[in-house]
Design goal:
The chain is an all-alpha fold and 152 residues long. The protein is 79% helix and 0% strand. The protein starts with a helix and ends with a helix.
């Protein structure tokens, strides 16, 4: 989206909602990083850690989704057809990068697996996500903050 276009538009954004959801993501990621500091063996042998990790992933991705839905409606003026589609809308409208849009769309799909428990989720995959992919959530928050600075 062009800078000039952004300056001319009034999006009527709920900044308090957006800030709260960003804080929710950061808190969840902080907890996920603590869990990720365990060894794979410690993680797999502790049902409380596994459950906590899955729950915090849901919390973080749900908060990201809430931000996405708000911005898709208010900035892009588009209604997503799926959780993943929402992030692609933000990417194509320059709210977040295309790369972050792809990673967040993937996270949204994983969230669906966690919430709806389609088949058995491999706990090793959950641990892999904790170790390798939570940075995408923080990158998303930073890109949203950057966008908000341009429109505030």
């Amino acid at each position: 989206m062009e800078e000039g276009l952004l300056a001319k538009k009034n999006f009527y954004l709920n900044y308090d909602l957006l800030r709260q959801k960003m804080a929710d993501i950061e808190k969840a990621v902080s907890l996920l990083e603590k869990i990720a500091s365990k060894t794979l063996e410690e993680f797999l042998s502790d049902e409380v850690l596994i459950s906590g990790a899955k729950y915090q992933l849901i919390v973080a991705i749900e908060a990201a989704q809430g931000i996405c839905n708000h911005l898709a409606a208010r900035v892009a003026k588009e209604a997503p057809v799926s959780y993943a589609d929402c992030f692609y809308i933000l990417g194509k409208n320059g709210v977040i990068s295309e790369e972050t849009a792809r990673k967040m769309a993937s996270a949204a799909k994983f969230r669906n697996l966690l919430v709806h428990q389609y088949g058995k989720i491999d706990d090793r995959k959950v641990f892999e996500i904790l170790r390798n992919d939570t940075g995408s959530l923080l990158r998303y928050v930073e890109e949203i903050r950057s966008f908000l600075r341009t429109v505030e």
